[in-house]
Amino acid sequence: MTAAAADTRHVPVLIDEVIDALAILPGERHVDATFGAGGYTRAMLARGATVFAFDRDPDAIAEGETLVRDGEGRLALIAAPFSAMEAELAELDAIPVDGVTMDIGVSSMQLDRADRGFSFQADGPLDMRMSQTGETAADFVNTADEEVIADVLYRYGEEPRSRRVARAIVAARPLTRTSELAAVVRKALGHRPHDKKDPATRTFQAIRIHLNRELDELADGLEAAERVLRPGGRLAVVTFHSLEDRMVKRFLRERSGAMPAGSRHLPAARAKAEPSFEMVGRAVRAGEAEVARNPRARSATLRVARRTTAAPWRKGEGR
Asked: What is the pLDDT of residue 264?
């Protein structure tokens, strides 16, 4: 695979497809909105781009400093969420940019480190904070009302038996470890070792999304990308579950004039707003070879759009 990091666990999903879709030319300015382990950034640098990379995880920022030093002045690593990209780029006098790439959700680095508490594959503290600040997963499950927990599980995890799970969580308090929470969910829902999908997956996803305000960040980040891209600049977004993908799909269809209707997260656009994006090709999913190398790629979807010459929609106009 081109531009791959040495550690295959940290090769971004669909990296070749993303880089090809961006059509990077030497000297262009690109945003890697989700730096992580730096896979996309390395590929962008290899194509000759100047890169502005964002991450709210202090670990990612610290571990990326070597790449900054090796970047020969072509990499700025910014400790901020991608929802802040417009303000951060304005401070650097870096608007407009030629491309924005967003890889939504939790990173492999976060999932693979048990002490971060994102996964139940290995036992660790119930944390799940991307920025390593604020409320932890343990704080949430041990203090939130049962009804609030149930609503979070239903809304962000699409858990059909959210009330049963919430009731079990409250009865099992206090919970401090990922293995404890996973065991509670499995017992509440029933789990057999040969089941294809662990029933705890939806609960962990829901709590993580809630704590990190991921859907709000995504909505704000998409609008920020619209404002910083030059006419003809490209937006590439990789998502990993249906909630994210529906938001991105609806945003791009609305902004391209293909779908004026709204939704809970992105209500109807104002009728006279000119299309600010045009779609580029169809949604792309990982091939069999990539899925075989990296099972996490199975659920990945890439959507690409090109910025038009129309003015950005007013903030919140498409929600």
From this structure: 53
